Amino acid sequence: MPADAAPSLTALRAEVVACRRCPRLVEWRERVARDRKAAFADEDYWGRPVPAFGDPDARVLIVGLAPAAHGANRTGRMFTGDRSGDWLYRALHRAGFASQPDSTSREDGLELRDVLITAAVRCAPPDNKPTTVERDACAPFLERELTLLGGLRVIVALGGFAWNQVLRSLSDMWGTVPSPRPAFGHGARVGVDDPGGRPVLVVASYHPSQQNTFTGRLTEPMFDEVWEVARGAL
């Protein structure tokens, strides 16, 4: 990791949290935080863009789609407080990347080892569907994280949206992504080289959303295999 990576990630976090670039997302995230879900009516929602969470020395970067309205938009931490996060952190704990199998709040003591979790879009979008303009407005945050993680060796993209955004950013930044870009599919892999010529493995996984986990499209053994691949690549 570059010597100034941790301070730079801290500065980037502050920029992310203060961002108001996308009027539709600002209005939505703040309305959700104000109206709240009945189950969380007594909680104070975060209601802002959600910064990356994890180890500033990470060699593995996990990229999701966007914060969930009543998950990370409520708790202020990536994949925290919803069913998708339950799946993700259990799997990371089994793989030795997380200190505990659950993630309930920013004060629960969870620590990640060698992993940083981020998202293609940092604000909760209506219907989990960011626009192209919103996606592009958030892209510089992801690109800066890719630059700051000097020891990066693996990127795990959760879902097709994240996969496409990761490859788009890597193509723009490094120019080492095959053309045409590889199609998304669970377990898909592509190797690229960073600017120093070091290999980085990009791995695709189905997103651990309820739509995928409740239907059996994504099973825990399938998900565990993704983290075994990531661990093996290190």
How do you describe this structure in short?
It is built from 8 helices and 6 strands, in the order H-H-E-E-H-H-E-H-E-H-E-E-H-H. With 234 residues, it is an alpha/beta fold.
Description:
The chain starts with a helix and ends with a helix. A six-stranded mixed sheet has the order 1-3-2-4-6-5, with helices on both faces. It has a single domain, classed as Uracil-DNA Glycosylase, subunit E (3-Layer(aba) Sandwich), CATH 3.40.470. With 234 residues, the protein is α/β, with parallel strands linked by helices. A hairpin with a 5-residue loop joins strand 5 (189-193) and strand 6. It has eight helices and six strands; from the N terminus they run ααββααβαβαββαα. The chain is 39% helix and 12% strand.
Keywords:
234 residues, Uracil-DNA Glycosylase, subunit E, 12% strand, six-stranded mixed β-sheet, globular, alpha/beta
Give the percentage of residues in beta strands.
5-15%
List the total number of helices. Answer: 8
Kindly, what is the distance between the CA atoms of the first and last residues, rounded to a whole number of angstroms?
Answer: 15 Å
Largest sheet: 6 strands, mixed
Number of domains: 1
What strand order characterises the main sheet? 1-3-2-4-6-5
The helical percent reads 25-40%
Structural class, please? alpha/beta
Radius of gyration: 17 Å
CATH architectural name: 3-Layer(aba) Sandwich
Indicate the CATH topology.
Uracil-DNA Glycosylase, subunit E
| Record field, number of beta strands | 6
* Helix-strand topology string: HHEEHHEHEHEEHH
Oligomer: single chain
Parts with pLDDT < 50 across at least 5 consecutive residues:
none
Average pLDDT: 95
Q: Give the class-level CATH name.
A: Alpha Beta
State the CATH superfamily name. Uracil-DNA glycosylase-like domain
Basic shape: globular
